[in-house]
Predict the structure.
Amino acid sequence: MEFRDAVKNTPDLQDALQRGLQALNNTARAKVRASRPRDLRGSVDLDGHLKKKYPKASRWDYAIGVAQGGGVDDRVVYVELHPAHTGEVRTVLNKYSWLRSWLRSKAPDLDALPASYHWIATSGVHISKGSPQVRQLAISGIRVSSRLELT
């Protein structure tokens, strides 16, 4: 399935799809690069678009569709821009938990696409190596970095 179709089939995301990385704010766009921009299937500002319907939720920031080629389904790269300190791990894990629950219940077509989850540090990564929090992130599959290269 294509990312565009999965977004269009999600009632909560009507009119949310943007071309390329246009849904990302300037700070996020400066930290996310696509080595092959032609493979971008679009982006969605999840936080901005879902804020009104889920005002008290710990919403994830963005979803980016990327072509995989070879007739394989597109993949989704979920991006959270947030300060990367050990004390913020619980906050990001809560956002991840909310996202996973929302995908299962409200966006099954998006949930069916291959996905990766990325925490992009707003000002460097300051999470203690070997800490329980690092293990929690590893178990969840969330990757933490200062920048993201979409390949």
